[in-house]
């Protein structure tokens, strides 16, 4: 029976796609993918490229990244409807997302709209933070420790509580929030034990293992993550 | 040059191994793997099995799972020394871990002992909680939400703080801690929105999507995880 597959393709390196995702990608009839901002191939599509067959039908669709939910929802509804129609016509349809489909992904919204109108299956992917931890050889947690994933956009209060509570905190989306994040890390004397990674697992990846000298004015790319480790 | 590879092989399904891990497994000269408790093949080895070559040298070693660190450390030191010797003699050596090597894995300790005496590379794997979220089609986080991974062994106080702070909390190692965990979930009216999964992504997997009727006396296996979602 035809299905809709939400496929996590990992952080950037095509080899960090799972065997299952690579097989499903090669079996799809139609692949939906987020439209690249500047035209050209989307990053997700580049990662999946080694696994897809030549005659795969690719539907690049625009997913607006705005704060206004109602603006976004109209667009998502349209794409979800198209996916449902494709599956009902007997096609195996895929949607690829960077990292894992259940961690900060547009796929969640599609899933919510689609509900159980068609059969869906989600394939997990390597998250950016798991990939980063492996690259810098820093364990996220051991034994009885805990860790949290906190986007800088969730605000100073929440981030501070998380820094107090957990042995390790991964801060996502730090790019435009250094003025908030850096003083907090300084307050708890954590600048030395913070690793900052931009473009994890991609060609232009950069890693800093101590951010004591990072300026709040530094321009960082959207794909920048910090791993803060206490003790 | 010969290397030591720490390889995450994911939660249980051999297809959830990454393409990179599957390639490296097929190229290794020696594979270290935790010894199965009851003799026979270890779980990790079963997952990796489709990818390893017939003449691969497999070294099953005993990693004691006791609380006393000094007891464990002697054993780890011995295994680490053996690995270093193997790599220095020109062999490509692997060590496989369930899930991700940087999330609650013995590999962290090996890495600490080995340091930079030989070249090491860590390959991330799909964690049990990412796999579970995909299987039950429940997003871990969206937009500005945060989530935490907390082992039940870290105690009631920490778990309560985490439940107050984050939109989603993954509770690991709940098996023998229901008497502590369940009253807390009840206090915050979260029993209905908790998913409990045993043996994620394995044949004998069980999933419960509402644990209001779960008894504190229930016997659960070690591989049991809860995903608690607020709101």
Q: What does this 3D model show about the protein?
A:
The structure is a homodimer of 231-residue chains. Chain A is α/β, with parallel strands linked by helices and 231 residues long. The first copy, chain A, has helices at 19-27, 43-48, 69-88, 107-114, 128-135, 156-165, 178-187; strands at residues 4-8, 30-34, 57-61, 93-97, 120-123, 147-151, 168-172, 194-198, 206-208, 224-229. In chain A, the strands form two sheets. Chain A has a five-stranded parallel beta sheet, sandwiched between helices. In chain A, helix 3 crosses helix 4 and helix 6 packs parallel to helix 7 (178-187). The longest helix of chain A is centred in the middle third of the chain and has 20 residues, at 69-88. Chain A starts with a strand and ends with a strand. The mean pLDDT of chain A is 91. Chains A and B meet through helix 1, helix 4, strand 5, helix 5 and strand 6 of A and helix 1, helix 4, strand 5, helix 5 and strand 6 of B. Strand 6 (147-151) of chain A pairs antiparallel with strand 6 (147-151) of chain B, so a sheet runs across the interface.
Number of strands of chain A: 10
Oligomer status = homodimer
**Major sheet strand order of chain A:** 3-2-4-1-5
- Biggest interface between protein chains, with counts per chain? A-B, 57 and 57 residues
Q: What is the makeup of the main sheet of chain A? A: 5 strands, parallel
């Amino acid at each position: 029976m035809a299905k809709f597959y939400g496929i996590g393709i990992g952080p950037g390196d095509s080899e960090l796609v799972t065997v299952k995702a690579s097989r499903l990608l090669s079996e799809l009839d139609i692949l939906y993918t987020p439209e690249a901002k500047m035209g050209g191939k989307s990053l997700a599509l580049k990662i999946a490229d080694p696994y897809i067959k030549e005659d795969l039908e690719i539907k690049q669709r625009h997913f607006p990244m705005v704060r206004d939910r109602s603006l976004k929802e109209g667009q998502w509804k349209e794409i979800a409807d198209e996916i449902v129609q494709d599956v009902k016509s007997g096609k195996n349809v895929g949607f690829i997302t960077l990292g894992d489909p259940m961690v900060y992904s547009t796929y969640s919204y599609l899933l919510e709209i689609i509900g159980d109108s068609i059969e869906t299956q989600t394939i997990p992917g390597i998250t950016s933070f798991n990939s980063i931890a492996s690259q810098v050889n820093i364990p996220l947690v051991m034994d009885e420790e805990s860790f949290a994933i906190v986007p800088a956009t969730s605000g100073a209060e929440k981030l501070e509580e998380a820094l107090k509570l957990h042995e390790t905190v991964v801060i996502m989306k730090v790019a435009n929030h250094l003025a908030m994040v850096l003083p907090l890390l300084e307050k708890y004397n954590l600048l030395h034990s913070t690793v900052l990674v931009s473009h994890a697992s991609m060609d232009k990846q950069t890693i800093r293992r101590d951010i004591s000298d990072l300026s709040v004015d530094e321009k960082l790319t959207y794909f920048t993550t910090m791993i803060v480790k206490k003790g």
